Model the fold of this input.
Amino acid sequence: MKYARPLPNYMVQRYHGWKATTFNENRTWYKKLAEEGQRPRAFIIACCDSRVHVTSIFGADQGEFFIHRNIANLVPPFTDDGDHHGTSAAVEYAVTALKVAHIVILGHSNCGGVQGCYDMCSGHAPELEEKSSFVGRWMDILRPGYERVLDVPEEQRKDALEKESILISLENLMSFPFVREAVEKGNLTLHGLWTDIGDGDLLQYDPESKTFVQV
Ligand SMILES: [Zn+2]
Done:
């Protein structure tokens, strides 16, 4: 592979800083993690957005969370077509091998992926309609959500569609037979969260009121 190059300096320096401090001060803990393997209690599916600092907002240590990130924190519906399914593979591994107790879908404010879906569905992003657009085809998962937000006032639709990205992912999770089984046996619980980047608020979906409420 002739295209791989050495890391930029700022990353090299940060790495050495981490090795000399955080790692060095917790050597025993890292050794234990290496020897005993991972036993994360929760699986978090979040957006790729660099502003969503998953491990930071939950004060997570190594080994605590199994994390998967993709554009707009989406879980596709279950399908056994034999194709490449990265998100579904992560769901399968988390539930059947790691046997996590919780799956958290973590959405966020100002999501560019959701904005793209909104633009595409409202006819303002023909480039995303192209068959060759990976982002567009990925955002097709959220299309049913667009239909559902059409009855909310226009200025709130984008925000509502971000919430739909969480609800549709939760619904799609339940289409995986092993997820449904674990949930119905009481071994797994699903959670829907939305974080506001600007003010640090965290909301969770409340099935009673069918709304997102402050954590
Ligand atoms: Zn996002």
Notes: The radius of gyration is 19 Å. The longest strand covers residues 102-108. The chain has a mean pLDDT of 97. Residues 47, 49, 72, 108, 111-113 surround zinc ion (CB under 6 Å).
